[in-house]
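User: Let's play a game. I give you a shape written as tokens, and you guess the letters that built it. Ready? Here's round one.
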């Protein structure tokens, strides 16, 4: 079964501190956002991509799509103040049926195999997200003093793309908007409706480029993939 994708590129990249939206930073000679879009564009099961952009960067992104011959972007939607608002705007460009994969433009190392696993799981269960087991010991603190150590055996670090039945994620976003709820991912909007979200084993290499250190990790991942 095919799916549609929403790829988010409308952040500011403040934590990257690059003086520009991090989506335009070059990784192995190609802009980060291009690397991310290419994964979806090259997947036969991807029916179309809604790319969510800052209005001021619309033209620059449209030029990149032309230059790198990315053909599956069907719409450019305007981003919002927070990530959740950007996703909401992206959803408005889709019809309320089928499966949607919502992905951070800043995660270029997603594998096509995982896109398919997520889409298939969303067909079955309505909502499916990739996640990796937390490796560090996690402590809850009050200021700089430890309050407690959290049992990590049930803790997962969640990634994107997050896959949903379109009607379900639209309902969840409408409810969040109505209630003034702001989450840091899309699955949390489903959780608050009391509906199940399935976890799929993710990939530690599917990093989000957030701070300058992540550029070093990204170069290493890229180099390792060139020899695959
Ligand atoms: N209002 C927003 C905020 C974020 N994003 C996108 O959501 C993804 C994940 O967000 P994050 O890594 O936090 O990116 P930024 O918001 O760009 O970074 P920062 O918080 O450091 O400014 C990114 O691909 C970003 O472009 C978006 O489309 N619209
Ligand atoms: C959705 C997300 O990628 C899951 O890990 C993440 O929460 C988005 O990034 P942010 O830094 O929380 O905005």
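Assistant: Ready! My guess for every position:
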């Amino acid at each position: 079964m095919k799916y549609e994708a929403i790829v988010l590129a409308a952040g500011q990249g403040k934590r990257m501190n690059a003086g520009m939206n991090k989506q335009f930073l070059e990784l192995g000679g190609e802009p980060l956002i291009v690397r991310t879009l290419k994964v979806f564009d090259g997947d036969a099961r991807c029916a179309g991509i809604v790319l969510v952009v800052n209005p001021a960067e619309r033209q620059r992104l449209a030029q990149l799509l032309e230059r790198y011959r990315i053909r599956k972007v069907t719409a450019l939607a305007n981003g919002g103040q927070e990530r959740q608002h950007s996703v909401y705007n992206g959803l408005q460009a889709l019809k309320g049926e089928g499966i949607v994969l919502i992905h951070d433009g800043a995660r270029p190392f997603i594998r096509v195999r995982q896109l398919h696993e997520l889409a298939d799981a969303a067909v079955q269960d309505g909502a499916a997200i990739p996640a990796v087991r937390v490796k560090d010991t996690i402590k809850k603190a009050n200021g700089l003093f430890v309050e407690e150590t959290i049992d990590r055996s049930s803790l997962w670090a969640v990634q994107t793309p997050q896959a949903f039945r379109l009607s379900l994620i639209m309902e969840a976003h409408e409810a969040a908007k109505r209630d003034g709820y702001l989450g840091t991912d899309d699955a949390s909007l489903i959780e608050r409706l009391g509906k199940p979200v399935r976890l799929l084993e993710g990939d530690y290499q599917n990093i989000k480029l957030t701070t300058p250190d992540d550029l070093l990790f990204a170069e290493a991942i890229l180099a390792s993939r060139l020899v695959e």
